[in-house]
Amino acid sequence: MFCQRSIFWLGFQIAVAFTLFFSAESLLFAQEMRIESKVFMKNGNDEVPISENLTFFVDGLVYDFLAQPEEVTILDAQPGRERFIVLDPARQIKCILGLREIHEFVEQVRLGAERSQDPFVQFLARPEFQTNWSPENHLLLLNSNWMQYRIQTSPVPNEQMRVRYHDFSNWYAKLNTMANPLSMPPFARLVVNQQLNKYGQIPQSVELKLLLEKQLTFRSEHKVIQLLSAEDKQRIQQTDQQFIQYRQVSFSDYYQHKKKGEEGAKQAQEAQPERR
User: Fold this and answer.
1) pLDDT for the residue numbered 159
2) Is 274 inside a domain boundary?
3) Is 104 part of a structural domain of the chain?
4) Model confidence, pTM
5) Collapsed DSSP state (helix, strand, coil) of residue 264
6) Is residue 204 part of a domain?
């Protein structure tokens, strides 16, 4: 749900880790891409899984499937549409958000952060990093007094996918800010995206450190495959049918539905007898 997506983007705003499989069929790759994403939080010497996503780029659309709790987000940035569609399969409801609405909300977040008395929040409004790019090692470092990124990269396979991935990453970060009031503003993530786009790179392995009173470290990894499988395409068709069938609600109603659903699931889990 949206609140879990907040944790996801705290790690995913790092960018994400990718293993690329290239092919001579560059035209097909330009039209399709599949990304398997996992995010972890470091706890001492251990890593705790936080979230898992599956993302499809196909036919000008981007489908993002959050594993737990189940949710589907579709970016349709084509001229005349320019929107996000969010589906809740458990509740069989959907909401639609225009990209302009999201952009305007995020700019209000920036203004609020700029007026904050908290130095960290002020930094998040207009983050600045010392950037070090090593083309020989495909290593991108972004350092500040508050946050550090270490990103191992691979070249983007073609220009079309560079543009599509960059746009999706930017809009997804902005959507997360609107959907999760307690999440960090997206502007640090947007700086990372800008640097990756500048050098024509996709993340291969990423580590984010938040240098707060209690340091937090997140790691994300993704696997990229150039073409969609028959099963992937069937899942997209199923999602398209859900979009037609589900009842549309406002964003605020959608959020309340999700919040109530999560609270109910938590109460049901707590009511179960203890396993021995």
Assistant:
1) 87
2) no
3) yes
4) 0.82
5) helix
6) yes
